[in-house]
Design goal:
The protein has 144 residues and is of the alpha/beta class. The chain has five helices and five strands; from the N terminus they run E-H-E-H-E-H-E-H-E-H. The mean pLDDT is 92.
């Protein structure tokens, strides 16, 4: 998995220092992963800003509770099968992601049937990208 092909667009800032510490730890392990923060606003304004940031050659994946659930190994395989496409994950804010943006996504991802604050969702996604990378490389991080 080539992390430089991945980008995360996240609504809202990380306010809790312990979450920021965790994110920074995984980002240090994932050089090349870009994270772009967008200010919390209305769904319409957020969608407009996200579409401005998205490049034509990027595959959009939105995170929401109705998306596909994968095991870590399944997610790793799905990302490996993307054949180095440029993939952009979008994590919504308090009001979630607009229905039109969700429907325009190549696929939707659910980290869990539970609902998480956007800060924790960002930490979980980044950790899962790190886990997927180590699984694809046969590293010891992911325990069977």
């Amino acid at each position: 998995i080539n992390i430089s092909h991945y980008k995360i667009i996240a609504i809202g800032k990380i306010k809790k220092s312990w979450i920021q510490t965790g994110i920074e730890m995984y980002l240090n392990r994932l050089p090349g992963l870009k994270v772009i923060e967008i200010k919390d606003s209305t769904q319409t304004k957020e969608e407009y800003l996200i579409k401005e940031i998205l490049n034509k050659n990027e595959t959009l994946i939105t995170l929401n509770e109705n998306g596909h659930s994968f095991t870590s190994k399944q997610l790793s395989k799905k990302l490996l099968a993307s054949h180095n496409q440029n993939i952009t994950f979008v994590i919504g804010g308090a009001t979630g992601i607009s229905p039109t943006l969700n429907s325009s996504a190549a696929w939707q991802l659910s980290l869990s049937p539970l609902t998480f604050p956007h800060e924790i969702a960002r930490l979980l996604l980044i950790e899962q990208l790190y886990r997927a990378k180590t699984i694809s490389q046969g590293g010891p991080y992911h325990k069977e």
